[in-house]
Write a structure and sequence with these properties.
Elements (H helix, E strand, L loop, with lengths): L10 E11 L7 E11 L3 E5 L6 H8 L7 E6 L2 E4 L6 H7 E4 L11 H13 L7 H10 L15 H13 L5 E4 L8 H16 L10 E6 L11 E6 L2 E6 L1 H4 L5 H6 L8
Parallel strand pairs: 3-8, 3-9, 6-7, 7-8
Antiparallel strand pairs: 1-2, 1-4, 4-5, 9-10
Helix pairs in contact: 3-4, 3-5
């Protein structure tokens, strides 16, 4: 029998000397000189206080806005301040869950979830009914399928946003402060479901999903993620794995591990 060959994880995201601007005010830099690599099958959580740049970081990773300086490489496709990322790559291979779900209010929950499938396949609702139903069932959203977002609680809107992000079976999942505003039961559900996605969920054909989440409270993530970083004073600081957190005495990290949410 031939010996097993260990294949090193591939780097799928790389930021080189990147400056990230504020989505609302592109002239204002929120993060500077970011150098960061993400390997496939990693589970990153990036902590930061309110207005530290978490959402802007996620928008850049999703290809929604280019970096103000430096280069961002996603699946070997580069996005610089002077270039354009092939959006078809980002939309098909990378999913994002925005804070609050950001659903389209004129569509039902089922229609929101089906939207990526219909858009990329130029299909009708009936053509994607089976895939949509599978997502509704797995994320416990069947009873809300015909409802519009305005009639659904924020926790369920957030979950519908996750279902929509998973519709195209992405390789990378971005989560913008996914646990914000959730009660303990819903937060536990998210953490359990994300662990299944990371290890390989049947919805994804059993293939592990690379996860990058932002958070203003690191406590729930400590025993889930395997890589941590924080945003502090416009800097991106890599901390390492969960055991490494104990060795760091940074005051901001200690605050985030106490669930601090002081605004800056």
């Amino acid at each position: 029998m031939s010996p097993a060959i260990n294949v090193a994880p591939q780097t799928i995201i790389e930021l080189t000397d990147v400056t990230i601007s504020d989505l609302k005010d592109p002239r204002r830099a929120v993060l500077e000189h970011v150098n960061w690599s993400v390997e496939e099958r990693a589970y990153w959580v990036v902590g930061g206080l309110h207005a530290s740049g978490k959402s802007n970081l996620m928008a850049t990773l999703a290809g929604i806005m280019p970096p103000a300086a430096g280069t961002y490489c996603l699946f070997d496709e580069s996005l610089s301040s002077h270039g354009q990322l092939d959006r078809s790559i980002a939309r098909r291979r990378l999913g994002i869950v925005f804070d609050g779900g950001r659903l389209i209010h004129d569509l039902t929950i089922a229609e929101n979830i089906a939207l990526p499938l219909r858009y990329h396949g130029n299909l009708g609702m009936e053509d994607v009914a089976g895939e949509t139903q599978a997502l509704l069932e797995e994320l416990e959203l069947e009873s809300f399928a015909a409802s519009h977002p305005v009639g659904v609680g924020r926790n369920w809107q957030q979950r519908a946003g996750l279902a929509r992000a998973l519709a195209l079976k992405p390789e990378v999942l971005l989560l913008d402060n996914a646990l914000a505003g959730l009660d303990p039961r819903d937060a536990w559900w998210w953490l359990e479901f994300l662990s299944q996605l990371w290890k390989g969920h049947p919805l994804m054909g059993g293939k592990p999903v690379t996860i990058i989440a932002s958070a203003d409270d690191l406590r729930p993530w400590r025993e889930r993620a395997n890589r941590f970083a924080i945003l502090k004073e416009k800097q991106f600081m890599v901390l390492g794995d969960e055991p490494s957190l104990a060795a760091h005495q940074d005051p901001l990290l200690r605050e985030l591990l106490r669930g601090g949410s002081r605004k800056t």
